[in-house]
Amino acid sequence: MIPWLAHANEFPPLERALGEPNGLLCAGGDLLPPRLLAAYRAGIFPWYAAGEPILWWSPDPRMVLVPHEFRIARSLRRTLRRGAYEVRLDSNFAAVITACATTPRKGQPGTWITAEMQAAYRRMHELGYAHSVEVWVRQALVGGVYGLSIGKMFYGESMFSLLTDASKIALAHLARYLATRGYGLIDCQMKTAHLASLGAREIPRGEFIGRLHQLTAGADDNAHWPVAGASGPWY
Question: What is the CATH class of 63-231?
């Protein structure tokens, strides 16, 4: 059995998270900004399917990507250098999260990005915490990634691709953007072969929490990124 959250934005100790399924910590609560911020600052994130209560997770180990360790294959480097696309920051966050929720994924019958989740993260975007990196070709959105930024920590949530390598382009630009601004980690949550091929790796949860606290210490409520709009190819 896992605890059920009360109204207070307090979560159980991470040591109480289950080993199977890995990281399941508690259930219930809401997706209002104070609770989401408390969760992410503690190394916890929501992940659940439609019809389920809100489930909160903190897996051990944790998949992370150090921004300057992003691995670029030769084919992707050629694509980045050609620059036959436009990358924008936060120009249409709502379209990115909608695309992440609706784009079919191999081996997945549905999505965990419910309407409730979309509304919650759109609100976080309005408050300056949630951000999108978008890939556009001839004014069409073809790929992107979104997540949350607190201090010098970025929490990746989801990405989508309608053209070959479009999500990789978005992630490459995100990694470069974060590296040049002193961000220390991108939280990738769970291990996937795709993320591992791009340079992400697993670290123990205790190490992750220690780095998380360092990177978010002193972060104030104004988490807006300093720039928005279009950016050219960087590689």
Answer: alpha beta
Does the model's pTM come out above 0.85? Answer: yes
Q: CATH top-level class for 4-59?
A: alpha beta
Do 63-231 and 4-59 fall under one CATH topology? no
On whether the CB atoms of residues 131 and 88 are closer than 8 A, the answer is no
In 3D, which of 89, 36, 101, 74 has the Cα closest to residue 165? 74
3-state secondary structure of 36: helix
- Reported as a single tens digit per residue, the pLDDT across 3-51 is 999 766 689 999 999 999 999 999 999 999 999 999 999 999 999 999 9
Residues 6+ away with beta carbon under 8 Å from 78:
none
| Sole residue written with tokens 């191999």 | 106
